[in-house]
Design a protein that fits this description.
The structure holds two protein chains of two kinds. By secondary structure, chain A is α+β, with helices and mostly antiparallel strands. Chain A has a domain at about 220-300. Chain A is about 65% helix and about 10% strand. Chain A is globular. The two termini of chain A are about 30 Å apart. By secondary structure, chain B is an alpha+beta fold. Chain B is built from twelve helices and eleven strands. Chain B has helices at about 5-10, 80-90, 100-135, 140-160, 165-180, 210-215, 220-235, 240-255, 260-300, 305-320, 330-340, 350-360; strands spanning about 10-15, 25-30, 35-40, 45-50, 55-60, 65, 75, 95, 190-195, 200-205, 205-210. In chain B, the strands form two sheets. Chain B has an eight-stranded mixed beta sheet with strand order 4-3-2-1-7-6-5-8. Chain B has a three-stranded mixed beta sheet with strand order 9-11-10. In chain B, strand 1 and strand 2 form a beta hairpin. The longest helix of chain B is centred in the first third of the chain and has 38 residues, at about 100-135. Classes of the chains: A alpha+beta, B alpha+beta.
Amino acid sequence: MSDEPGAPDGAATVIEGSIDFTGRTGDIVGLVIKNALLNIITLGFYRFWGRTNVRRYLWRKTEVFAAPLEYTGTGKELFVGFLLIVVLVFVPYAILNVVLESSGLLADATFAIAYNLLVTLIIFYLIGVASYRARRYRLTRTRWRSIRLGQTGSSWRFGFWYLGLNLLMFFLGLITPYKNMKLWQLKTQNTHVGDRFLEFDREGASGKILLKLYARFMLPCFFAALVIYLPALFFVSEAAAVAIDSTLAIDELSEQIVGHLFALPDNYGTLITVVWPLAFMIFLACLVWYKLEETRLLVSLTGFGPLRPAFEARGGSYFGLWLGNMLIQILTLGFGLPFTQLRYVGWVCKHTQIDGQLDLSDISQSLDDDLTSGEGLAEAFDMGAV
Amino acid sequence: MAGPDALASSHSAEFFDGNSPVSKQVEVRADIDQLAIIDPAETVDAIHWHLVETRWIDGADKPVLSTSATPDARLVLDSADLAAELVALGLLSKGIVETAKSRKTHTQAWKYGLAAIGVTVALLVAIPLLSGPFARMAPDSWRHKMGVESAEVIETLLGKRCENTDAQAILDQLMARLVKNLPGNELLDVAVLDTKMINAFAMAGGQIRMMNGLIKNAKSSDEVAGVLAHEIAHVILRHPEEFAFRQFGYEILLSTIADSGAVTEVAASAGMHLVNSAHSRDAETAADALGIELLRNAGISSGGIAAFFARHASDLGKLENVLKFVSSHPPSAARKEMFENAGNTGGAALSDEDWQTLKLACANS
């Protein structure tokens, strides 16, 4: 601890350092086995308590400036949140479905399409709401040096941003960098440690950084286009080969083109087994490369008082994390999830630095004491990241 | 293990007052039923935490203590010996701090938990009880639509409908004969599917499909008539609709308790399967009884179907007895006995000529 007894007041409260994760896989083997067994016996109901135990461990082993985080959430809260969602969302939806199905309204194609579209929109909206509420739950249950973290802002409003931006992205994929920056901003600006809020874009650099992001985004876009349009290009060139040495009527011609294409098993084979997977893999690699840069830039726009966090990670190291976690999940039939979470938290901490000095006397406990919400909705949509 | 010395000596710790992240180095001593927290730099009185209000909430080597009197405050002991000794003496508990607020959540959680268990049990009872009445209330238009959809799926999976018009006419006549004395009109549509499987299905809305393998395997037209009577009985008793309602109810129930863990899901669906097959065995027995009734009304011998089950009893008998509890049908031997006890000796179901035609139902396809 930097505040030694007897040091003059003021100087003792200024601290600096790093964010470290000291968890080890060996520590949680027993916990994982216990969770798996109890989950089986209770038909999965133990998961709320199991998840809480894992979080307590992960939080305790995450040290910010040499002080560990404390997780104060409980399994009961998660369970109650889950029950509320079953009663308020799932059961009404199931009943509505049965009523519509038996009334024969769904037999009408127009009604069925409109209904399904509406349900999809509502689910998408609720996913946005849920992710925001889950984040608030985890933050309010987190303490550092006895100080509660938290998140203000309306989850219903966040849900509209989430739905709207994702809808735009559906029609206009190029909006992705802007969308991610906007959602990041909504989340960070509303996050507080005690009575002090995180800040986003302290120097008005977001415009410049958005341009940088777009420059980076072009590469995955190029490969996405390749993955999607390569088969089309292939079709067109093959069709052209038929068309050139032919003077047939239009319907005969199209018949020939189709016949010609389906008589090309060799070229098809190369496309499907070599070119397409290769392009897809390059696309994924580019996407990771973009996402890491995006995270780096968004983190650099975020600050807390005089502290400037920095995130820097290589694609190769992310690939190692991802591959290892995939293997763990497959080999443990999904029960090894906590191992993957431990690896993920460790990886994030390893690649995050915090520059600057923080005067602890600038912070005090926040008055807002939000101990109400669980994260039931997120649970329902299976979004509990950690 | 910490000795009693731990109680007598004073221990260094880090103290957070609950308002500021700035901590103080303090000395902690056990003082009968409380902890005395002393700041050596200040001359003010020590802070006292009652042990009954205090919990060891986190940390193993460096215990984190909290008290319900000031839930935001934290005391982080430099070593575990004092806290371990107090726990050993039963003076200090581990776990979360109980405040008025968290106690309220606690009571609420119990209420929700009991309500959830109540709803689950009520659903487990209500689903099988209500699915029968629901099935009987279902309008014909809905039953027909559902049946046609299931029939399409079955035909895609097993084999397409055989289009021999002569054989179809014979089958339709046989069916008409079996239902002629029934009050009201039943939705019924029977067809032969081109597959070697020895089986027959009744689906919602009176859609009945007999596998060509069953007709080929039959030694007489009475056996086919017996199976058809059994499937018609399922239709009259609305078993396919009842099954659909029950399945739907159980799936909703299952979806709320299932976890991402694969083993849990398998365990849960195995349980549901056991419950379902018990209902299914009852339904088969009921359909057998009504089937005999239909055969009797039509003046067809039930000796044929008894022979059919006799053949299958010797093939499958041993295995079926072992699988009695997981199987959806009663053991074949028991069914053979039931048909024989019916003591029904009517005439033949079809003329020889018609029977030969029916056997060729899928010959062209």
